[in-house]
Write a structure and sequence with these properties.
The complex is a heterodimer of chains A (196) and B (811).
Chain A: H1 5-13, H2 15-23, H3 29-35, E1 45-50, E2 59-64, E3 76-81, H4 99-103, E4 113-115, E5 123-124, H5 127-145, E6 147-149, E7 155-166, H6 172-185, E8 187-192
Parallel strand pairs in A: 7-8
Antiparallel strand pairs in A: 1-2, 2-3, 4-5, 6-7
Chain B: E1 13-17, H1 21-24, H2 26-39, E2 42-46, H3 52-55, E3 59-61, H4 68-81, H5 87-93, E4 106-107, E5 110-111, E6 114-115, E7 120-121, H6 148-156, H7 161-168, H8 172-183, E8 192-196, H9 198-201, H10 206-219, E9 230-232, H11 239-244, E10 251-252, E11 256-257, H12 266-271, H13 289-301, H14 325-333, E12 339-343, H15 347-350, H16 354-362, E13 366-371, E14 398-403, E15 412-415, E16 420-424, H17 437-455, H18 461-465, H19 478-486, E17 488-489, E18 523-524, E19 534-535, E20 538-539, E21 560-561, E22 589-591, E23 596-598, E24 682-687, H20 701-706, E25 711-715, H21 716-722, E26 729-734, E27 737-746, E28 752-754, E29 757-759, E30 761-765, E31 800-808
Helix pairs in contact in B: 4-7, 4-8, 4-10, 14-16
Classes of the chains: A alpha+beta (196), B alpha/beta (811).
GO molecular function (chain A): 4 iron, 4 sulfur cluster binding; electron transfer activity; molybdenum ion binding; oxidoreductase activity
Pfam family, one (chain A): Molybdop_Fe4S4
InterPro entries (chain A): Mopterin_OxRdtase_4Fe-4S_dom, MopterinOxRdtase_cofactor_BS, TAT_signal
C-alpha cells in the first residue's frame, strides 16, 4: 500500500483504535489503514475564487467533487483560504471560514418565485412566466411615465418611476452589463449598496 | 485605499478610527500586526467602544459617537500650533501658499454665502485669487493672511485640547498622547497610515471626517508614500468595483458625470469639464475627459454612436436630481415610484427607518428581487409581529424573487479595497434553476427590446441603438464583457509621435492603457480607469504571480490594480521637488536623469523632468497639489467644521447658532421624528461582529451557531442606573421605533463626560432579521434616523438617540 503524508498523520491519530484492532487479532498496518477514511480532499478539484464578503477580498480555494468530466457533477464540499494569495496568505476569518454554509444555506432561492397582490406568500413559477411578466410591467410603466423633455423643452429622456438598486457582491462584468441595460431604458433612480 | 492591504506593513504609526479592522476586515488587519512586529509600528485606536482592534493597540482613546471632526480638528490644531508638520512637503505639494479671494469668511458656525431658506451655500467666494491669465496666485512666504495656510490656522485655532475634551469626552491628557504619537511622523522619516470604515462615513457630515484626515496626512507629508495614505476599508467584496462602474443616479463609469438637462449638447457637457491647469507647468490629467467620455459612449452604442449624432449623447438619460437610495425610498413613500428592482441588495434591512420602508414598498406596483438568498426585502409583505409589522392582505405590490448564483458559481472579477481587480473561477453550477445576474439582465433587456420592436412605445431609440453584439446576446460571458470594459481600437490608430510608422493599434485590438484612448470615435472603452486590465497579452486580472521583488508589498504581477496597475496613488509625492526620495527607506519612484522609475508605476508623466518643470504631484487636480482648502467641492464648506449629529445629547460646543450640518437634506416628516435628548437621553451607535457579515451570514449555519441572537451592549454604570443585569431582556426605543434584545453588560463601553455631563452609549450590532439560520431578531434600522451625509447621502447610523429599559429576565 502507499501511504501519503496526510494518511500517515491520520494513522498516528488512530493509535488507540489501532491497539484495539490488534487486540481483536488484526496485527498488520494494512488492517489499520483499511479502517481509515481516505483524506477526502485528495481527489477533489481545486478552483481559485474570492471571498464575497468584505473588501479584503481574500483568496479562497473551492474544493469540488469530480474532475469536471461530462458524467460527473461538481459539488462543493470544502472552502479554505488560498495560501498563495498575497493578502490573506491562506487565512480566513470566521465569516470566510464558514463560506460552505452560505453556499449550501437552506434559505437559498432555487427557483423563481411570485407573490400576487394581497397574497400571504410566494408561489414557485417558471422563468418564462417571471421574465415575461416583469418585462410587461416595466414596459407599461416606462411607456406611461418616460419623460422626453422638461416643461421648458430641454431633453430629459429619462424614466423616473422605476428604481434599480445594484448590489456590491456582483462582479464588475455584471455591473457593466447592468449599467448598459438600465441606462438604455432611461432609468435614473439608480443606486447601489456603496451608498449605505 | 490610496495604498493597499500589504502596504500597511510599511507604516510606523497606524491610526484606526472610524472602523474596527480586527473584526470587520480581519485578514487585512494582519498587515497591522505585521507592521507592529516587523516595523515596530504603534497602533492607535480611537473608538466609542473598546473593540478587539483597541485590545491590541498601543494607545486607545474613547470618543463620543459623532464627535470625530472635533477630535481630528484638535489633532490639526496640535500639529499647526506645535509646528509638527513636514514643512517642505506642505509648501511644495499642498495649496498652503495659495491665496484665497476676498469675501471668503467663517462666522458663528457658517461659511460665507449661506442661504438658510435653501439650506445651501453660494460657494462662489470659496476660491483662490487668480491673475489675468487665469492662474492661481501664491505667496510662498506664507505671510499673506489670506493664504490657505493662515486661514487654516485661524479656522482650527478653536479646536484646542480643552474643546476636544468638552466635545468628545476624551480626557485631555490621553488626547495629547494621541497627538504626540501622530506627530512623530511629521519629519518624512516615518509614516502614518489611516484605516477607516463606516465609523467615519455613516454620519450626517461623514465626508468631512475624511477631509480632516486628508488635511492631517498632507500636513504630515504622508500621501504617496509607503505605509501612508488614506485607506478606506470598504464594505462588500466588490463595493469598490461597483462604485468604479458608476451605478449611481448621477455617474458614468470611471468617476465621470451623467449629463443634466442644461447640458443640451455634448459640447455643452464637456465645456465645464475641461479641467484646465491653474498653475504654470502643471499637467491636469482630466483634460483627457473628452477621450474617456466619447470612448464610453462608443462602448454603450457601438457603431450607432457617430460624430454626427454626438456619439449618442441624447440617448443618455439626463439627471437633474440625484435619486440616491434615501430619495428613492422617500419618493416611494410618497407614492411616486411604481417599480423597483433590487439586485443583491437588501434595503429593508440596511436603509434607515423600517416603518417608512415597509410603507414605501407597499405602495409599489411591482418589486423584483434578484438574489441567491431569501432576503427580508423580498418578504417585506409578511407579518413577523413587531419585527416586521406588515399586513399582507392590504399590500397590493406584486413581488418577484429571481434566484441568482453565488460567488462560487460564476467567473468574473471583483475589485478589492486596494483597487486590485482579481479574476475568480467558477467551481460549480448554481442550485436548482438559479441563473447568473448577467443572464437575467440580458434576458430582461432582450425581452424589452423585442416588445419595443413589436409594439413600439416611448422613445425606443436608446434600447434599439445600444450595442449588444455579444457572441450569444442572451448569455454574454464575463470574459467578453471584461474585454469591452478594457476597450479596443475601432480603427487603425496612428502612432502619435510619427504617423509614418505602423499604427500603434490595429482595428479590433485591445487597448494597452487609457492613454491610447481617442475622442474621435476610433476607440471604445466602458470604463477608462480599468483600461489595461485585459490586453492583447491576455487577462491581466487573472495573473497569479505573488512575487514582491521590492519587499514593499507591491506584488506588481498579482491581478491588476487600477489605474495603470499602480499600487500606491500619488507616488510622485514620495520624492522631493528635485525628484529624489524624501527618505531612502520610503522610496517608491525617483527621477533617474531621463525618466521616473522605481518599484511602482509612476503616478506622473514618466518623462516630466523635475529639474526643468515644477509640475505638482497631484495631477488629478488642476492645482497639481493636495487641497487643505477644497474650494467649492464640499457642500458644507472648504474646511471641515464640527456639527452635532441630528440627534445629540449636547448643544454644539463650538457655536450656539448652528447645531447640526446646515446643508444636510432632511425630508418633511423625517425632521418631525428626530428625537430629543429629554426623551431619549442615550447615544446609540451601530456596529458589526467578527462572526457576521451584514444580513448575509445569518443564513450560514456556522455563523448562526457562533452568534445566534441579537443583543445590545451597554456599560456597567448605565446597567446599574437602569437596573439591568447581563442577559436581561431590554427594550431600546427611538422616536421611530423600538427593538427588544438581550442586554450584554460590558466594560468595553464606558460613559464619557462631555461638557460636565455623563453621556452613556448603547451599542447595537446589526446582523439579525426575520429570515435565516439565526434566531429572529430586530434590526437597528427600526431605530435609525432618515438623514444622510450632505455630500454622499450615506445615512447617519453611527450616532442617534435612544432610551433603554428593562422589560424582563432572560427570555
Amino acid at each position: 500500500m502507499t501511504i501519503n503524508r496526510r494518511e500517515f498523520f491520520r494513522l498516528g491519530g488512530t493509535a488507540v483504535a489501532g491497539t484495539t484492532a490488534s487486540a481483536l487479532g488484526f496485527g498488520s498496518l494494512e488492517a489499520v489503514a483499511a479502517e481509515v477514511r481516505p483524506y477526502k480532499l485528495a481527489r477533489t478539484t481545486e478552483t481559485r475564487n474570492t471571498c464575497p464578503y468584505c473588501s479584503v477580498s481574500c483568496g479562497v480555494i473551492i474544493h469540488t467533487t469530480g474532475d469536471g468530466s461530462k458524467n460527473t457533477k461538481a459539488e462543493i464540499v470544502h472552502v479554505e483560504g488560498d495560501p498563495d494569495h498575497p493578502v490573506n496568505r491562506g487565512s480566513l476569518c470566521p465569516k470566510g471560514a464558514a463560506l460552505l454554509d452560505f453556499i449550501r444555506s437552506e434559505t437559498r432561492v432555487k427557483q423563481p418565485m411570485h407573490r400576487a397582490a394581497g397574497e400571504a406568500g410566494f408561489k414557485p413559477v417558471s422563468w418564462d412566466f417571471v421574465m415575461e411578466r416583469v418585462a410587461r410591467l416595466m414596459k407599461d410603466d416606462r411607456d406611461a411615465n418616460f419623460k422626453q423633455a422638461s416643461d421648458d423643452g430641454k431633453t430629459l429622456n429619462h424614466w423616473p418611476t422605476t428604481g434599480f438598486l445594484a448590489g456590491c457582491a456582483t462582479t464588475n462584468e455584471t455591473g457593466w452589463l447592468t449599467y448598459k441595460a438600465v441606462r438604455s431604458l432611461g432609468i435614473i433612480a439608480l443606486d447601489n449598496q456603496a451608498r449605505i | 485605499m490610496t495604498n493597499g492591504w500589504n502596504d500597511i506593513k510599511n507604516a510606523d504609526v497606524v491610526l484606526v478610527m472610524g472602523g474596527n479592522a480586527a473584526e470587520a476586515h480581519t485578514c487585512g488587519f494582519k498587515w497591522v500586526t505585521e507592521a507592529k512586529s516587523g516595523n515596530g509600528a504603534k497602533l492607535i485606536v480611537v473608538d466609542p467602544r473598546f473593540t478587539r482592534t483597541a485590545a491590541v493597540s498601543d494607545l486607545y482613546a474613547p470618543l463620543r459617537p459623532g464627535s470625530d471632526i472635533a477630535f481630528l480638528g484638535g489633532i490639526i490644531h496640535y500639529l499647526l500650533s506645535n509646528e509638527k508638520i513636514f514643512k517642505d512637503y506642505v509648501l511644495a505639494y499642498t495649496n498652503a501658499a495659495f491665496i484665497v479671494k476676498e469675501g471668503f469668511g467663517f462666522e458663528d458656525g457658517l461659511f460665507s454665502g449661506y442661504n438658510a431658506e435653501k439650506r445651501d451655500y453660494d460657494r462662489s467666494s470659496w476660491d483662490y485669487e487668480y491673475d489675468e491669465a487665469g492662474q492661481a496666485k501664491l505667496d510662498p512666504t506664507l505671510e499673506n493672511p489670506r493664504c490657505v495656510f493662515n486661514l487654516l490656522k485661524v479656522h482650527y485655532s478653536r479646536y484646542t485640547a480643552e474643546m476636544v475634551e468638552k466635545t468628545c469626552g476624551t480626557p485631555k491628557d490621553l488626547f495629547l498622547k494621541v497627538c504626540e504619537l501622530i506627530a512623530t511622523t511629521a519629519t518624512g522619516a516615518k509614516t502614518l497610515t489611516s484605516l477607516y470604515a463606516l465609523g467615519w462615513t455613516q454620519h450626517s457630515k461623514g465626508s468631512q471626517n475624511i477631509r480632516n484626515i486628508a488635511i492631517i496626512q498632507l500636513l504630515l507629508g504622508n500621501m504617496g508614500v509607503p505605509g501612508g495614505g488614506i485607506n478606506a476599508l470598504r464594505g462588500h467584496s466588490n463595493v469598490q468595483g461597483i462604485t468604479d462602474f458608476g451605478l449611481f443616479s448621477n455617474s458614468v463609469p470611471g468617476y465621470l458625470a451623467m449629463p443634466n438637462s442644461k447640458e443640451t449638447t455634448l459640447e455643452e457637457y464637456l465645456k465645464t469639464r475641461a479641467f484646465k491647469p491653474i498653475r504654470p507647468d502643471q499637467m491636469s490629467f482630466l483634460q483627457n475627459y473628452r477621450k474617456f467620455f466619447v470612448s464610453f459612449l462608443k462602448a454603450m452604442y457601438g457603431k450607432n454612436a457617430t460624430a454626427e449624432n454626438q456619439f449618442g449623447f441624447d440617448w443618455l438619460p439626463k439627471v437633474d436630481v440625484n435619486l440616491d437610495t434615501l430619495r428613492q425610498f422617500e419618493l416611494m413613500f410618497q407614492g411616486k415610484m411604481n417599480g423597483f428592482i433590487c439586485q443583491g441588495f437588501n434595503p429593508l434591512m440596511s436603509v434607515p427607518n423600517r416603518k417608512k420602508l415597509i410603507a414605501g414598498l407597499s405602495k409599489l406596483k411591482y418589486l423584483v428581487v434578484m438574489d441567491p438568498l431569501h432576503t427580508e426585502t423580498a418578504h417585506f409583505f409578511e407579518n413577523h409581529g413587531e419585527m416586521n409589522d406588515a399586513d399582507p392582505a392590504k399590500i397590493a405590490t406584486e413581488v418577484f424573487l429571481l434566484p441568482t448564483n453565488c460567488f462560487a458559481e460564476e467567473e468574473g472579477t471583483f475589485t478589492n479595497s486596494g483597487r486590485v481587480i482579481q479574476w475568480h473561477w467558477k467551481a460549480a453550477e448554481p442550485p436548482g434553476q438559479a441563473r447568473t445576474d448577467i443572464q437575467i439582465m440580458a434576458d430582461l433587456f432582450l425581452r424589452l427590446k423585442a416588445l419595443y420592436a413589436k409594439e413600439g412605445g416611448k422613445f425606443p431609440d436608446p434600447i434599439m441603438n445600444v450595442d449588444w453584439s455579444y457572441r450569444n446576446p442572451a448569455k454574454p460571458t464575463a470574459d467578453e464583457l471584461l474585454r469591452e470594459i478594457n476597450g479596443r481600437a475601432l480603427a487603425d490608430l496612428p502612432d502619435p509621435a510619427d504617423a509614418t510608422k505602423p499604427p500603434i493599434k490595429k482595428a479590433g485590438e485591445l487597448m494597452d492603457i487609457f492613454a491610447q484612448l481617442k475622442d474621435d470615435g476610433t476607440t471604445s472603452c466602458a470604463n477608462w480607469i480599468y483600461s489595461g486590465c485585459y490586453t492583447e497579452k491576455g487577462n491581466m486580472t487573472a495573473r497569479r504571480d505573488p512575487s514582491d521583488p521590492s519587499g514593499k508589498g507591491i506584488h506588481p504581477n498579482w491581478g491588476y490594480a487600477w489605474p495603470a496597475n499602480r499600487r500606491i496613488l500619488y507616488n510622485r509625492a514620495s520624492a522631493d521637488p528635485s525628484g529624489k526620495a524624501w527618505n531612502a527607506k520610503k522610496k517608491v519612484i525617483e527621477w533617474n536623469g531621463s525618466r521616473w522609475a522605481g518599484i511602482d508605476v509612476p503616478d506622473f508623466g514618466p518623462l516630466i523632468d523635475p529639474t526643468q518643470k515644477a509640475t505638482g504631484p497631484f495631477i488629478m487636480n488642476p492645482e497639481g497639489v493636495g487641497r487643505l482648502f477644497t474650494r467649492g467641492m464640499m457642500r458644507e464648506g472648504p474646511f471641515p467644521e464640527h456639527y452635532e449629529p441630528f440627534e445629540s445629547p449636547v448643544a454644539n460646543p463650538f457655536h450656539t447658532k448652528v447645531q447640526s450640518n446646515p446643508v444636510a437634506r432632511v425630508f418633511k416628516g423625517d425632521l418631525e421624528v428626530f428625537g430629543k435628548s429629554e426623551d431619549f437621553p442615550y447615544v446609540a451607535t451601530t456596529y458589526r461582529l467578527v462572526e457576521h457579515f451584514h444580513y448575509w451570514t445569518k443564513h450560514a449555519k456556522m455563523n448562526a451557531v457562533l452568534q445566534p441572537e441579537l443583543f445590545v451592549e451597554i456599560g456597567e454604570q448605565l446597567a446599574k442606573d437602569k437596573g439591568i443585569a447581563s442577559g436581561d431582556m431590554v427594550e431600546v426605543s427611538s422616536n421611530r421605533g423600538r427593538i427588544k434584545a438581550k442586554a450584554v453588560v460590558t466594560k468595553r463601553i464606558r460613559p464619557l463626560v462631555c461638557d460636565g455631563k455623563p453621556v452613556h452609549i448603547v451599542g447595537i450590532p446589526i446582523h439579525w432579521g426575520f429570515i435565516g439560520a439565526t434566531k429572529k431578531g430586530f434590526g437597528a434600522n427600526q431605530l435609525t434616523p432618515y438623514v444622510g451625509d450632505a455630500n454622499t447621502e450615506t445615512p447617519e447610523y453611527k450616532a442617534f438617540l435612544v432610551n433603554i429599559k428593562r422589560i424582563g429576565p432572560a427570555a
